[in-house]
């Protein structure tokens, strides 16, 4: 194992192997922001908890624009340093992305051994902790290196003073040695990761094309992190996908088959959760995973109806779907976790969102309604066909049972007579066997 890789191995200790660090959270209240500061800092605290640290203090400052040198004012910077001393904090986490110089200047203001990171670094750190597949790990490493590249000078000074140690923010650059790594080596590493990722992505593309070639109706689950997408997939398909009440508990997309009541097979794909201020490096790095959304026939936008910020979360998801050019795909809003609100609240929400579906993946509330809605949309473009299929074409009869809605079936002397509803892509397979009634 090279020194380059051994540094990574040492840095990737699990949460269970390290003590819980203490974090001070910092936010700024700017005019014109749609997401309430309190809610954003509360979410940041959950991210910190997911990464393996405890929030011991929170502070904020109302400003028109960030200070170009230290993000917050010099007086607030000293106040943050005092909070770190008072609470013996190990970590300062900013709710917005810092420039390399802002991070470096803030670190010089903080007590020795206190790390300064931003929301982007924290999210990348959580992704590094939760990535399990080869593709997921490569995507995270790519995003980390792209984030790290402009911060090399400050990062190396930071490492030189042995501040990184372990813990939150130190799962960075699964692939950097330390002081001796320069920009050229990081760029080389980025190129290498992209090459590996391209190879893995080609394998995924082949698998995806195989599903597309089957003309199966494809449904993608998208939504804010922790909205319950994995739980919903498990409920509908018995997928047994990992699902925890934590942010970004699962990163890798999972596809499972769902057989609708009429017999049609569709696929459901669970995708990585979105979040406000989602780092652009992650959107780019997870492009191949997000293509599962872009290639879908229907998107189920899963929303945690019990969250006080569900409307802001919906906006954040819409923004990411816009970034990946998926806004034109048919979409159904699915309000999940209805078991956590009252029936009166549900009825009020039904009035506000008449086209949404309301479910609980825990109690099965509304699941049948959701499956019915998927079936209606999947069959909305279907053609009614009457076809006499020769017995020698048994594969077409099997296809009809798998992908079409069979209205009637009759075994005749010269073949199987089918009356069915079929999608345009499937219907062309039966063109040679249509009867006059079906033309």
The largest beta-sheet arranges its strands as 6-7-5-8-9-10
Separation of the first and last Cα atoms: 67 Å
State Rg. Answer: 26 Å
Query: Helices and strands: which structural class?
Result: alpha/beta
Shape: elongated
Question: What would the average pLDDT be, to the nearest integer?
Answer: 83
Strand content: 15-25%
Low-confidence stretches: 1-17, 156-164, 174-179
Q: What percent of residues adopt helix (DSSP H or I)? A: 40-55%
- Please write the string of helix (H) and strand (E) elements: HEHEHEHEHHHHEHEEHHEHEHEHEHEEH
Biggest beta sheet summary: 6 strands, mixed
How many separate helices?
16
Please count the beta strands (DSSP E, at least 2 residues each). Answer: 13
Task: Provide structural commentary.
The strands form three sheets. A six-stranded mixed β-sheet has the order 6-7-5-8-9-10, with helices on both faces. A four-stranded parallel β-sheet has the order 2-1-3-4, with helices on both faces. The protein has a three-stranded antiparallel β-sheet with strand order 11-13-12. The N and C termini lie far apart (67 Å). The longest helix is centred in the middle third of the chain and has 31 residues, at 183-213. It is 43% helix and 19% strand. The chain is an alpha/beta fold and 439 residues long. The chain has helices spanning 3-11, 37-51, 74-87, 100-109, 119-130, 134-148, 152-160, 183-213, 229-237, 280-285, 287-294, 310-323, 343-352, 367-379, 394-403, 424-427, and strands at 21-29, 53-62, 91-94, 115-118, 217-223, 254-259, 265-270, 298-304, 330-336, 357-358, 383-389, 405-412, 415-422. The model is unreliable at 1-17, 156-164 and 174-179 (pLDDT under 50). It has 16 helices and 13 strands. β3, α4 and β4 form a beta-alpha-beta unit.
């Amino acid at each position: 194992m090279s020194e380059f890789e051994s540094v990574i191995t040492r840095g990737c200790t699990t949460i269970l192997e390290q003590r819980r660090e203490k974090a001070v959270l910092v936010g700024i209240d700017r005019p014109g922001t749609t997401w309430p500061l309190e809610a954003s800092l509360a979410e940041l605290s959950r991210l910190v908890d997911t990464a393996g640290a405890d929030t011991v203090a929170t502070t904020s400052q109302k400003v028109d624009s960030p200070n170009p040198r230290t993000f917050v004012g010099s007086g607030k910077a000293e106040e943050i340093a005092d909070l770190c001393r008072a609470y013996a904090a190990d970590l300062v986490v900013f709710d917005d992305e810092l420039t390399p110089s802002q991070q470096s200047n803030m670190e010089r203001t903080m007590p020795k051994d206190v790390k300064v990171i931003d929301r982007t670094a924290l999210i990348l750190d959580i992704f590094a902790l939760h990535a399990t597949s080869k593709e997921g790990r490569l995507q995270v490493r790519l995003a980390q290196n792209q984030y790290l590249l402009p911060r090399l000078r400050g990062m190396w000074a930071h490492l030189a003073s042995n501040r990184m140690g372990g813990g939150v923010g130190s799962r960075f650059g699964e692939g950097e040695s330390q002081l001796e790594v320069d920009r050229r080596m990081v760029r080389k590493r980025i190129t290498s990761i992209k090459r590996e990722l391209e190879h893995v992505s080609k394998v995924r593309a082949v698998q995806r094309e195989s599903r597309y070639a089957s003309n199966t109706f494809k449904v993608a689950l998208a939504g804010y992190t922790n909205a319950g997408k994995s739980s919903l997939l498990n409920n509908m398909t018995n997928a047994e996908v990992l699902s925890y009440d934590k942010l970004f508990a699962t990163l890798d997309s999972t596809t499972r088959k769902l057989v609708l009541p009429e017999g049609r097979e569709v696929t459901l794909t669970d995708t990585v959760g979105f979040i406000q201020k989602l780092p652009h490096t992650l959107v780019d790095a997870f492009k191949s995973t997000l293509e599962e959304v872009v290639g879908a026939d229907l998107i189920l936008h899963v929303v945690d109806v019990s969250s006080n910020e569900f409307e802001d979360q919906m906006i954040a998801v819409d923004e990411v779907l816009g970034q990946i050019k998926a806004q034109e795909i048919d979409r159904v809003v699915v309000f999940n976790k209805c078991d956590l609100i009252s029936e009166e609240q549900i009825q009020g929400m039904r009035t506000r969102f008449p086209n949404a579906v309301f479910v609980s993946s825990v109690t099965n509330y509304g699941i049948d309604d959701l499956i019915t809605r998927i079936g209606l949309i999947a069959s909305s473009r279907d053609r009614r066909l009457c076809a006499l299929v020769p017995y020698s074409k048994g594969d077409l009869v099997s296809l009809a049972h798998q992908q079409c809605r069979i209205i009637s079936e009759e075994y005749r002397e010269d073949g199987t007579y089918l009356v069915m509803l079929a999608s345009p892509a499937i219907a062309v397979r039966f063109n040679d066997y249509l009867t006059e009634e079906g033309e």
